[in-house]
Specification:
With 173 residues, this protein is an all-alpha fold. Helices cover 73% and strands 0% of the residues. It has one domain (3-165).
Amino acid sequence: MNPIKFVFDRIFAALTWAAMAMLVIMTVLIFTDVFCRYLLGFSIFWAGEVSLILMIWFTFIALAIGVRKKNHIAIDFILSWLPDKIQTGIVARVVDVFTFIFGVIFVYFGIELCKLGAYSTLAATDLPSYTEYIFIPVSGLLVIYTSIENFIQRPKSPEYLDTIFLGERDKNA
């Protein structure tokens, strides 16, 4: 097995587990804050800010995973008129190129946002503001890797994430 693919498979798996944990933490945190506010008469002052950070992180992790599993938006109406060879050959390569460009934009502007966020802190937690944006360039790097991998070699084996969570390749991908 290719060692780079092995490492990225494990990174995507770890981020998938992290995203699931973030959803659970956000749910518990918001529920606890609402419970405390309306029934106990006090509020957890940092709950909204931490929930927002986790939601932003979750969104960009899910974006990278969605690109990896090919669950991104597609216009199938036009593609359905084209022969299968063109759909899986030329059009798939063009999509990979645009996905690569999208990843590069995420890396560039994500780094710029992180640089700007280094000069301020978040109100409740006193964390640097770039904490909110740190997963934008990370997500961009994962999108770039996935687009290069797909462009060079179309994956034919089951996706590692599918074998972990489903035991087989996702039928919708």
